Amino acid sequence: MHLGSESMDGRLLFAIPKKGRLYEKTLELLSGADIQFTRSHRLDVCLVGNHPIALVFLPAADIPSFVGKGNVDLGITGHDVILEAGMSEHVTEVLRLGFGKCALQFQVPESSSIKSVQDLAGKRVVTSFEVLAGRYFDDLDTELGLVNEQRTKIEYVGGSVEAACSLGLADGIVDLVESGETMRAAGLHAIGTLLETEAVLIRSTKPKHAHLAPLIERITKRIAGVIASSKYVLCQYNIPRQVLASAMEITPGRRAPTLSPLDDENWVGVSSMVEKKKVADVMDRLVEVGAEDVLIIRLDNCRV
Known about the structure:
globular, alpha/beta, 6-stranded mixed sheet, 5-stranded mixed sheet, 10 helices, single chain
């Protein structure tokens, strides 16, 4: 389909990270929400086939600005990116998406005499987050009474921040850390955390296209369903009525478990949503109180 202005008219514009740590997970999320599209390798805009939506593939750092100014209606980016772009007042974080989790940390060489963030104040700091780091050290320098040349020197680099200390460019860095393996390989360790971050779904605080509100709500609910289904499973089991109360304490569900009568009036079937990370413990406890036929069913999607 030709992507002329007519084909874009009236469509919800949805900004997607075009590459990087959020890209693959975002595509999985869109697939789970049944947002169907085919993207040409040469184009950063594509039309969704089953909804009046156009996906716009942008650098994650640009998405808060596009959404905040109303150029696009929805977007997925990192919480840290919004803060670094200074767009917190212009975008609303609709949903936290549960992926892309990492921490913006202060890191220094293992051999360094710097043991705390206070020790790092007044030194040379390299980062890709010069706004957040600059604001933090401005406040800390003032608190510590550092003035003029005593204040922390912040230098921006666009990548490979972890190499700055070994190259003699910095006494410490501020960078995103997921597993910490890259930092350890560079001989660095954390002395503090500036913020925790993850991917978020955002919309403009002052949307320009009021007629798109119902579609934005529908897509938001679909994405929320995909997120919930990644966190929960459905637990089903049979239990003697005399110990039902004990079993329901183990599986209270999100609101309440669903009870189904069985042919044997002394038994009842139970269905309940359970957090995926607690499944093994829940199953063990159910068997201990007398449950039988305990089944765990994976959820592909849901509405909760």
